[in-house]
Amino acid sequence: MTKYIDEAKAILAANDRGGYTVPTDRLYPFQWNWDSAFVAMGFAAYDIDRAYRELERLAEGQWADGMIPHIVFHQPSDSYFPGPDVWRTNHVIPTSGITQPPIFAMALRKIYETAVATGSVANERTLTLYEAALKWHRWWYRARDPEGTGLVALLHPWESGSDNSPAWDIALARVPTTTETPVVRKDIGHVNPQMRPRDEDYGRFIHLLDTYAACGWDPVEQWQKAEFKIADIQTSAILLKAGEDLHYLAGVFGRGGEADEIATLNERTRQALKAQWRSHLSRFVSRDLLAGEDVAAATQAGFIPLLALDLDEATADAAAAEMRRWCKGMKVVFPTTEPTSASFEAKRYWRGPAWAIINWLLINGLHRNGHAGFAEELRQSTISAIETEGFAEYFDPKTGEGCGGLGFSWTAATYIVLEKADSSAIQ
Ligand code: DGY
User: Fold this and answer.
1) How far is Cα 322 from Cα 214, in angstroms, rounded to an integer?
2) Which of these, 355, 308, 321, lies nearest to 165 by C-alpha position?
3) d(Cα 83, Cα 182) in Å, to the nearest integer?
């Protein structure tokens, strides 16, 4: 509806800090990596120049080795912890030292295709961003899959974007809560503490940060010293989908050698992801590399591979049936933790709430795998949650209540994209 589209655009305008968008005021006062990529796709619907700009400003934070960090600290702010003084990285624009899910190339293809369709394509800008994305994908495979398994590993829960997901509980419990850096949380001054990660989680988050800072952020040393190392299916699936989009763009620019290189990496990840399907659970599972065990926790990550795989009908049907089971009795879907599991918490950040951007990925995955009707239900649920509660960070799936930060950029961007879409695939 126009009224809500206008509100969504007003949120993106209010969160603009000069060519980049903060996720929300005060709670997240810098540029976040995957937030910005989703936001760029929202902008693509009505302002191509601004969409390109969002990715360009993010790429300003790219390290020489190709990593695009999870936060770019373009301007100072004292409303967030941990800031640049805690990260102690050496990039010319201060950045964090870890990364986040690589939505970037998905956004770039979306912007490019929309620009072509509206006669506003900027080839030079697209090519420069394509090269940044390629460098980053190469980094993922070099730094986070040195053994060439096809699945990329996270060394910090924040890299998943799903910071305190039950998926990390067992692995994170092995990480000491002790820190060299004093933990001075600012988030719980902005948002109800019951909705945020717990203090002991923060102790562990900062312990890992200290460990990697002591490695001088060298990827090889971090890989050796990591006390948290998860080959993650959500990130790997996003990397593969983004890899498909990168492959498409390599074709557009006649980069045959690069297209072959990307196709080889994609195929490795495709096969590795397929091998993580567990038929007795009707979902995919990540792998705890330090324990040598599957990550059994039932979270949304188990279904994100639908985004990037073409499953056989029986597997797709089993995944969709399991997803439907999780949705039973929920006012807003999709819950990010299986609602009957002991670790489910309806309002606490990534331990159960429904997130618009996760729905966006799942909607695309369901379309890709022959479940358009279910995808449409998810789309409607997301739109109606936002129209009822506003552009909240996330939603309590049991009551529908909007939770976390308000005036949230990626919820606004998702609304713009989902509202425009009919029942065909939206990506
Ligand atoms: C936070 O500070 O909550 C972020 O999710 C870390 O990126």
Assistant:
1) 43
2) 355
3) 12
| Cα 119 to Cα 48, 123, 421, distances in angstroms | 10, 12, 20
Question: Given 201, 245, 288, 393, which residue is catalytic?
Answer: 393
* DSSP category for residue 93: S
Tokens 């490019």 locate to 112
- DSSP-derived secondary structure for 391-409: S-SEE-TTT--EESSSS-H
Run of H or E including 293: strand 293-295
Centre of ligand 1 from the C-alpha of residue 279, in Å:
33
19, HSE (Cβ side, Cα atoms, 13 Å)? 12
Q: In sequence order, what are the beta bridge partners of 278?
A: 283
Q: What gap in Å lies between CA 72 and CA 20, rounded to an integer? A: 10
Q: What is the C-alpha separation between 203 and 181, in angstroms, rounded?
A: 9
DSSP per position, 24-42: BTTTB-SEEHHHHHHHHHH
Show the tokens assigned to 300.
Answer: 């949304």
Q: Is 393 a known active-site residue?
A: yes
Query: Angle at the Cα of 408 (from 404 to 410), degrees rounded to 5?
Result: 115
State the Cα angle at 152 between 243 and 426, rounded to 5°. Answer: 40
User: Is residue 178 helix, strand or coil?
Assistant: coil
Q: How many CB atoms within 10 Å of residue 113?
A: 16
Q: Kindly give the distance from the C-alpha atom of residue 159 to the centroid of ligand 1, in angstroms, as a whole number.
A: 9
Give catalytic status of residue 338 as yes or no: no
C-alpha distances in Å from residue 52, one per residue of 15, 118, 339, 418:
17, 14, 39, 20
The set of protein residues with a Cβ atom below 6 angstroms from ligand 1 is: 70, 158, 163, 187
Q: 233, 107 in Cβ contact below 8 A?
A: no
What averages of pLDDT result for each successive group of 10 residues across the chain (427 residues)? 94 98 97 98 97 98 98 97 97 96 98 96 96 99 98 98 98 98 97 96 98 98 98 99 98 98 98 98 98 98 98 98 98 98 98 98 98 98 98 98 97 96 57
Q: How many residues does the chain have?
A: 427
In this prediction, residue 423 carries a pLDDT of: 46
